Structure formats: C-alpha cells, structure tokens
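RESIDUES AND SHAPES:
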Amino acid sequence: MTLGYSHDHLRDPSDEGARSVNVPVARVRVLTVDDHASFRATVRQLIAATAGFEVAGEATDGLEAVAQAERLHPDLVIMDIRLPEIDGYEATRRIAQLHPDIVVYLVSAAADALECRAATTCGAVAFIRKEELRPDLLLDLWAVYGRNS
C-alpha cells in the first residue's frame, strides 16, 4: 500500500496565518505491539509528541496483542508484522473480527510489495515502514482512517 500524503494541512500552532492542524477532538488511545522494547519506547515518545494521541498499552507478541485489544479497546493499534506466537497479520485479522472499530496500522523495518499487499487483506488500514513513523503521519492517517473520519 502506498502512502501518499501531504503536510499542507499541518501547521505550527504559533503560526496564526496557517490552516489548522488535523488534531483529533477526542484522545486517540494507542496500543503498540512489538517484540522489541526499544521500538515500543520509540513509539511511546512518538505518541507523546503527537497532539491528541495517548498510550493505551503495549504488547510483545501477537496473542498478547489480541488480548490487550480485548481488554483495553484502543482506538488505534500500531502492530509490527514479525511477532512471536502469531504474526501481526493474524493478530490483525483476529482484532478486526472481534472489534471492527479498532483501526490497525501495520509496521515493519523491512518491507516489500508482498507485505504491503498482505496488509490490505488482513484488516489493517495502512502499512508503514518503521522509520517513516512521525507525528504528522499519524495525524494524516488518522484523519483518513480514524473512527470519526
């Protein structure tokens, strides 16, 4: 899945002349799923730097992701593809079946066209390379795929 997005709708809050930022009205609660503690820490920092988003919880494998989604009912799941127990595709399928209102972004450090296609068939709304995760991308994707979009 290609992610083409523009930063035109984003602005510095101190810039009075710019158009307003697409900041969610309600807090977007995020569940992060990755087996590497360092990436989960990076996502916590990313979420803290993104207006309107907050950490709902974390999981370290696919089965825990499904259980945490059931327990926490987050708005958004940022899910690694390569996970212990069950992979991110299967975890996403299960979450989508149980909670179709939960939005899932699949992430991976190494991605190819096959993984991008698989992301669209398992219930995820977007595929993102880990190094591309930024506050503006989260806001842009949420503006398109969020619950109230």
Observations:
- The helical segments are 37-48, 62-72, 88-98, 113-121, 135-145.
- The first strand starts at residue 28 and ends at 33.
